Each structure stands twice: as structure tokens, then as C-alpha cells.
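Fold description:
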Amino acid sequence: MAPERSPNVGLLALMLELYDQSNPELRPDREGFAQQIVALLSECADVTYGGIANTRAGVEAACRRFTAEDVDAVVVVCLSYAPSLIALSALRDLAVPIILLNTQELAGVGGSFGYDELLRNHGMHGLHDLANVLNRSQVPFQVVTGHLSDPAVRRELTDWCCAAYAVRELRSLRIGLLGHPFTGMGDFGVDETTFLAEIGPEVDRVDPGELSRRMAEASAAEIAPLMEADRAAYAIADDVTPEIHEASSRAEWALRQTVRERGLGAIALHYPPLAAASPGGVLPFLGAAKLMAEGVGFGGEGDVTSAALVHLAGLLFGEASFTEMFTIDFEGGAVFHAHYAEANPALARDDRPIRLVRRDGWVGCGGPSASLAFSNRPGPATLMNLTVGPGGAFRLIAAETEVLDYTQPAFVMPHFRCRPGLPLNAFLTGYLEAGGSHHLAIAEGHGLARVEKAASLTGVELITL
């Protein structure tokens, strides 16, 4: 799934007001360099920029515009020396991350370096001034240092913009809890008030009867397009009767309506209460999987922390899924991952059809229901776990891994094999020692740098394996 919108960043370009009198040609020249920065940022974000600011009033006006434009972060650059106190108050009052871009137009200082080059390339000590007063005032900020031509600078700016956007969306996330957390599973237990205060998501408890009522309301005209789309996209198993498919599509429609009407960005489901309320015991496996492909986070067994994490990972990487580690492959140096029925089909390998299969309820509850079975595309991936550590502090665990070329047609569930970057035994030992829970998110691509930035902005401890 593509993010719902692009990151939106403000660019605050600072200069010294005295140069307007002493060197009036400098400001239009530096405005040209500012436009280079706008062009660079525009590769990863929508940019709000209103020109150079060299007075306190100018900085305050720029920051008011950033607030009005609802930016996710503000990038600050000194195009010449600029005194810090023109910016301190306005930056202190911003409610979004501040990223100091420590750069200049000139790539090197050689034998021809002269006063003109120095005049156009001395913003560095302006950032020294600004970083000092921000630090003294306990205003948090991030720093990216390097020349604009350096691909590493582009990657780092992209990572910060994406992380700022994703964390901001996480702060306003509503998670629908349908049912209740699995009784006795302690590793994803969470204080919802602390969760809201420290991470941001709000948990909305949804009566399972609401889903069953919506299932009864679904008309044939609303169900038919869902079934037709399934027939076009999936290989439907012979034992998935039209009646099972229709009932499962009815459950999907009901789940979609619940998500839409309640404004949910993630869902956490536990099936026994849903099965008890559902006509015929049909369960929304199909809808949960398809919604994941549309960016709705998912947590199994009523796990709201994993639902939030899957949503966050999707915003950071574009595609993400719920998963669990099931079986150790000591011989292959890998781990077999799976879950009963819920995973993101957008991660399915491209050379095999996604199967729409029959599942007869869930662990002793529910009735015949359709779900999706596939194995993941091989390639680089990032595993993440959001849990609670000692003293109730939230903790993020992350590792770059490799999804292997593997499929097991006998499994009527989503599955894959995954090889960690660390030696297998060290990875598994480290995960246990870090207190990782048994629910994880997986996203395509290696992206620890982006995860690190999201953890920093969220204020949670990060452990990398």
C-alpha cells in the first residue's frame, strides 16, 4: 500500500540581516541555493517554504505558516551565519521534529578558495550557535550533515521525513479492539492510558455484536463486488463453497464498515467472542488480510501493540504484515514464520497464485470461513517488535533479515522462512534476552536507519539485533 499522503516538511532558511546592507547581492544568491534544498526535499516530501528569514519576526511568521500547513517536521539550514536568538523562541514552540541540515553549496576547499566562496559558504557556525541554544533550552533536534550531492544525505533526509510523518500518524491512530485480549497471554498486555500518553494510539473497544449486526445488513449488491474481486485475484480452493465465500465476504464487508465508520487505522481481533456473535460462526480472516494490504494495521489475539506496530511499519516502508516466529530451522540458519490466517497479501511472492482456502473456525471456535494462503516474496526485510520492558517502559526491537525463497503448499496459511543478519542462535538468544513478545511486524526492505529515527521521535528504547 502507498502511504495515504506524502510527508509534509517546512524549510526554514536562515541568514544574517546585516548582510542585506553590507552585501545585498548575497541574499538572492543564497536564495538560489535554498531552491536546491527545496528540490532535494521535494524528492521525498511536500515542502512548505516562503523564502529566507533573517529576523525574529520573519522566523515567527515562517513557523506560523508551518503550523497552518500542518507540517510533519521542520528542516533548518543556515545559508550564512545567522544569530540563534532570532529562531530560538519560534523553534521552541513548534510541536514537530526539528532537523538541522548542516550543509553548504561548496563541496571542497581548494587552492582557488577565496573570500567570495567563504561568504557564500559559512552557515556552519550559524548552526553551532543554534544547536547550542537549542541544547541549553532542552529543545530536541536531529542533525543531518553532508553535501547535497551525497546519496547518504538524501537517504538520511528521506528517512527523517518518513519517520516524522509515520510517527505523527501513529500519534492520532485509533485501534479497534474486537473481542478481548487472549486470556493468559501476558506478553502483549498493556495499560491503554499509558499507551495513549506515550505512544499515541487510542483503543476503541468494539462490541462483537456490532460486527454481526453489520453482517446481517450487508446486501447482495454490496457483497457481489467483493466476491468478484476475489475470483479475479485468487485461486479459490474446491472446498470453498459459494456459501462459505459469500458468508466470508459478508464478514469482510462488516469489518470494512466498522473500520470506516469508527475511523480506525488498525484492528486487533480475538476470535472466540466474534465467533460467538457471528451468524454461523463465520470469522473475518479474509477481510483482515485484505485490509492489511490497504494499510490497516492488524494485531492477532487482541494485541493492540502489534496492531499499532504493523500500521507504523506500513507507513515507514510501504508494505508490512503481522507475523509470528513458529519453528527454528537450525540446519538452514533460519526461522519459519506463519500465522493462522492473517497476513498482508501484498507481500505474497509473484510467481505463485494466492490461494483462497477454507478454514474450519479458529482453535475450537467458529465455523467454515475463507482465508488467504501464500508465501512471502524472497528478499531483504525488516522485523520489528513493540513491547513493554522493565518498569512499564515501551521498547522497540528490530532486525534486518532476509526472506528466503521458500514455499510449502501443504500449509493453508501465510508463511515464509526468514534468515536473520546475526548468526541464528545469537539472534534468537538476543530476542529472548530483550524480552521480545511473540507477535511481530515484518516489512519489505532493509530499514534499520528509518526504524531508529522513528524510535527516537517516539521516545522509546530501541534494541537492534
